[in-house]
Amino acid sequence: MRLVVLGGGESGVGTAILGKKKGYDVFVSDFGKIKNNYKEVLISNGIDWEEERHTQGLILNADVVMKSPGIPEKVPIVKKLIEKGVPVISEIEFAAPFTKAVTIGITGSNGKTTTTMLTYHLLKSAGLNVGLGGNIGKSFAEQVADDTYDSYVLELSSFQLDGIVDYKPHIAIITNISPDHLDRYEYNYQNYINSKMRITMNQTEDDYLIYDADDEAITAWLENNKTKAKLIPFSLTKTFNEGAFIQNNKMEVKINQDEFLMETESIALEGKHNMKNAMAATSVAKLMQIRKATIRESLSNFQGVEHRLEKVLKIQNVQYINDSKATNVNATFFALDSMNMPTVWIVGGVDKGNDYNELMSLVREKVKAIICLGVDNKKIIDAFGNVVDMMVEVTNMNDAVRMAQRLTEKGDAVLLSPACASFDLFENYEDRGNQFKQAVHNL
Fold first, then answer.
1. CATH fold of the domain at 2-89
2. Domain ranges within the chain, ordered by starting residue
3. Mean pLDDT confidence for 2-30
4. Mean pLDDT of all residues in the chain?
5. Is residue 92 packed enough to be buried (19+ CB in 10 Å), middle (13-18) or exposed (0-12)?
6. What is the side-by-side order of every strand in the sheet holding 367-373?
7. Crossing angle (nearest 10°) for helices 292-301 and 112-125
8. Comparing C-alpha atoms, which of 342, 349, 343 is closest to residue 326?
9. N or C, which terminus of the chain has less Cβ within 10 Å?
10. DSSP string, 286-340
11. Are 215 and 187 in contact (CB under 8 A)?
């Protein structure tokens, strides 16, 4: 059996290692450059590879192709494979049959990384033998090659879910759905929603779907489509006989005739959206029968995720906050919503079809100045030019942070929450966040 892997990054190289171990004839092809550390892994495992090209003769003869999530389906080589009827699948689909471990799959436009990390933290603190993978950390396929874990917590992007056929998580979480990556979905929001909901398409009566019952896109989909999974909703406004909710400043989680209670102020994560992430993760912990005391302790000591509303420093009584992971409008909505001081907002980057109107009332209420950090800021300027007193354009992080410092006074905050992808000026959102932190430390 010939396995061709498109993309020589974390998921690609992990899949190649697993494929080789399971007796496939493996070939890795990357249209860009493969990083040296990944090349060394391929060479030491005796896996053939090429970079900066896709040689059709070495690819179209595949029995199965694993496509890295970053490669769109409209790429010519992928189109040719699909025309030929060669299965093009994701790393998750390829790896899942090779492990008996229980998987917990987590998707959503926002909150999925925090929910994934918190769920992993809850299970690991309880002493479970659990791995972490998917869109985060070490390749799931590579971990399956060693197969030492009893369960995995997987962060799943819509792109990874597009490439599944039979994969099903035993427990699925959908944190929320808001317009994102529409450039990959013909600018059709429904296509993107359907993509996210694929997480539950193969689930059976023995599986669970944990979802945000306040989310219009999810609830509309559930009204019009069937899933066999047992539904476990969570909400900030409703209460349930089976599900998670907030009542009298307490988080309540009722599952299988058992109830878990915790004061919301004892939960380390702050902000309404993080209460939702905590409810989702706690629902998993309850399903995995983790002791209440352990859950309480883990929820109260969780450190949060880097680049997500991360408090960097206070300088001259001005708080600098790194929310570089906010790559869409909905994520920035949460960030602005959680601000309780006058804010200088650093925004901009590669726009994925953003509608900034959703932020208008929050910007009016909380933002005193906007710093545009992007190559093309026209949409942001058109949206907010008349709303804030001060609007500045910059093209590097040092200028953004120095300008922000000039525009603040005691009791203000500086928030980097770009609402956009980072690829115009930075390698990725981590690079953007790290540059911000470095610039703040240099002030």
1. Rossmann fold (3.40.50)
2. 2-89, 93-301, 310-441
3. 96
4. 94
5. buried
6. 310-315, 318-322, 413-416, 343-347, 367-373, 390-394
7. 130
8. 349
9. N
10. HHTT--HHHHHHHHHH----TTSSEEEEEETTEEEEE-TT--SHHHHHHHHHT--
11. no
Fold (CATH) for 93-301 = UDP-N-acetylmuramoyl-L-alanine:D-glutamate ligase (3.40.1190)
Closest CA to 90 of 211, 204, 198, 225: 198
Mean pLDDT calculated for residue range 389-406: 96
Average pLDDT over residues 10-29: 96
Confidence of residue 272 (pLDDT cuts 50, 70, 90): confident
88-89 and 310-315 as β-strands: parallel, antiparallel, unpaired? Answer: unpaired
Question: What are the binding residues for ATP?
Answer: 108-114
Residue 422 scores a pLDDT above 80: yes
* pLDDT for the residue 351: 83
Angstrom distance (rounded) from CA 353 to CA 302? 34
CA proximity to 16, closest of 131, 30, 61: 30
Residues tagged in the binding site annotation = 108-114
CB 166 within 8 A of CB 202: yes
Q: How many residues in the chain?
A: 443
Give the type of residue at 299.
Answer: L
Per-residue pLDDT tens digits for 194-203? 999 999 999 9
